[in-house]
Amino acid sequence: MNWYSYKAYDQEHHIYEEGMWADSEDEVRFKLRRKEWYLIGITEMHSVAAAHGRWRYKDCIEFSYRMSLLIESGLPMSSIMKFLMNSGGSIPYDILNEALQRGKLLSEALRDTGFPLIGCTLLQAGELSGTMGESFRIIHRYYEQEASWRHKLMSALAYPLFLAVLMIIFTGVAVGFILPAFRNVFASMQVHLPLLTRLLFAFGDWWRVYWWWALMLAAALGGLLIMVYRKPMMKLRLHQWWWQHIVCYERCHAFYLARLCRVWSMLLDSGLSITDVMALTANLWNNRYATACQQQAIQAIQSGRGISTSLKESGLGSPLLWEMIAIGEETGEMVAMMSHCATYYQRIVTQVTASLERLMEPLMVTCMGIGVAILVIAVMLPMFQAVTMIHQ
Hints:
- The protein has 392 residues and is mainly alpha-helical.
- It has helices spanning 25-34, 48-52, 57-72, 77-85, 93-101, 106-112, 117-129, 132-189, 195-230, 232-245, 250-269, 274-280, 288-302, 307-314, 319-331, 334-391; strands at residues 2-9, 15-22, 38-47.
- A hairpin with a 5-residue loop joins strand 1 and strand 2 (15-22).
- The model has no long low-confidence stretch (mean pLDDT 82).
């Protein structure tokens, strides 16, 4: 669905310049003819996804909270959308209302506007089971937790990033402007410069002359790496290497399993079967290799194999997850086992984040201290030699 800007006139020759969402120019002409308007000109502006872009966590939380209240109050979806269209804000209620009038499901309309995949998956489960109000409450709770975790992570990284930027600025100023000021002083004293000082002087000279070449080279190299990474086969190989060599450690795969186990438990609790849950969440790993592994697990489950065995053979999960799922299969408490796993891995994520927060600050301070020490030594060594020559 695209946004079309048009210019038309009615039977009284009043000219209107407006716009509407439509699938094609023919649909715009058809709607105008029904209003007995005559088209002068039409221009396709942008698509739905381009018009709105990605949803912010703030919008996801606000939208899911409003929808859960209004749906559980018993209002029909058409009345809900008409009511919310007057609320303003950055949420595209007009686009959603137009899509619903065309017969689309709300989950499909949200996906077209860039709503996060996890939210669309949870809502789709609610549409299948008839519990959309409950699904929106789950989405609201989920994105509140995600926003809280992201806020903690950004707070933990704010000070180290500030120190890193400060260190880069200080190093650039020192090498490009401060050190060259000492060159004439050392030359007039006829002091033999140490290797470290000569290297810093040479780097400063090179940076002042070729800094723009360095920036262009860095931009070109970054663009080349992005182009290579976007190739499907290269992305799959990189994701496979990452999964097999990095994510195999518990503290790394906890970042994946904490979210997936929580989503699995929510979907299973909504009444979906395990195969439907696996099919809906196959793309939530943000890793193509893991998605392919889950597709293999789905095929194994459909052929009659156990869930824990299928996940283990496909390489998804951890020994703890496999054991908990096996217990859930035997006792019928799959939702509870998934919730326990989500809680366990969330604690690991919290511990790792806290450890990184405690580690990053002294690490950045140490790096800054080393950089300052190198600059001081490069300046002080020739000065000590000059003082020694004067006393001799």
